Amino acid sequence: MTSAVEGLKAESTEVQTAFRRLVLGLADTKRLLGIRYSDWLLGAPSIEGGIATSSMAQDEWGHARLLYAALKDFGDDPVELEHERDAADYASWDPLDHPLPDWAHLIAAVVIVDGALALALEGILEGGYEPLGGRIGKMLGEEEFHQALGKAWFQRLATGEGEGHAHLQQAVEAMLAPTVRCMAPGDDAHERLADRGLILPSSTLQHRLAGRLDPLLERVGAGVPTEARLDNDWDPRRGRGTGHPEEEAVERARGDRNRALFVE
Amino acid sequence: MAELTASRPLPVVKAPSSQEALPAHVRSHASGGRDLWTDPLPKRPDDPDAALLELLHEVLDPELPISLVDLGLIYGAHLEGDVAHIRLTFTATACPCMEFIREDIRDRLTREHWIDAVRIQEVWDPPWTRDMISERGRRRLRELGVGV
After folding, report:
1. DSSP class of residue A110?
2. Any idea where the domains of chain B sit in the sequence?
3. In angstroms, how far is the first alpha carbon of chain A from the final one?
4. What is the third-level CATH fold of B34-143?
5. pLDDT tens track for A188-230
6. Which residues in chain B have their CB less than 8 angstroms from residue A133's CB?
7. Is the Cβ pair B129, A85 closer than 8 Å?
8. In total, how many domains does chain A have?
């Protein structure tokens, strides 16, 4: 099997750095998403919904682990990536920086954030990059269940009236643009990879996401934006906004309280 | 309590083997079906690759009482010298039984005099699906009331 380094050996340092940024961003986002899902394991509107978040959290952490492991080929130590970094170094997508305040926000995260993550992985798969492609098929298979659950709940909340609908609308408004910006920033690093055929261009990703989500989003008066606004709060090194996830979530992601019990 | 920061070196504790971790009154444990494992073969088999698969038929999934082979998790088994190379997948990317499965494979194979070491390559392509469960595995699961 071709290793990541061999697979990108012919590419420039800039392309390799951009690819590492992409993979680290996906890994960190999945790690944070798992934490956000796990927050609603108990206290969901139904026991079945809570159990589903438990299963999805498990999947996200499994995906994160595979993606961190893939970064070994870029010279990274996966243990260090998973257990040693400060919050300011996390490249997770902005909408997960804070806990999801209610079930409507969780459902918006499943449909928008998790859906966009899956699309980003598809983009890598279509780029034909072998070292990751072998893992992505399995991840996408598991993601199908997340989307089935997310879309069913989204429709349920969106077709209702009152508080549930309003909360969903707020959640979509808060998450949609920042998610699209992280998935398809259209900045130099992203387009460099697209130019080399390693991933899909930002415009294609946006178009595909709109095709999948707009019929749902229309129910709350929203739609996938066609252009990412980077403005001044864009951190090109991490491929996300200039903020970072709150400390408590990162402490959980790193396993700080159980460091003395860490088992290899 | 020691300060817990990201910069603190990560202490690594060597976990006891599952056998060491058992209470004294438990004489054996059945993880991986090990209480049913057969005795080691008297000599190196003529077809070691086929023999490896036969041996792995004795290793049960920790959650479902069918073998790893019947569950479709073994993508390949090959002996090079005295090292067994196993291509293994899992049902899920965050399967909670990964470590049990690895340990059970190693323990079963290294019981054989002709196997000195086991190298496990974890693979995800093609992704495991329920379609990969063998007919024998399906029959066994149906007997147990598990729908497949």
Report:
1. I
2. 34-143
3. 26
4. GMP Synthetase; Chain A, domain 3 (3.30.300)
5. 999 999 999 999 999 999 999 999 999 999 999 999 998 878 8
6. 125
7. no
8. 1
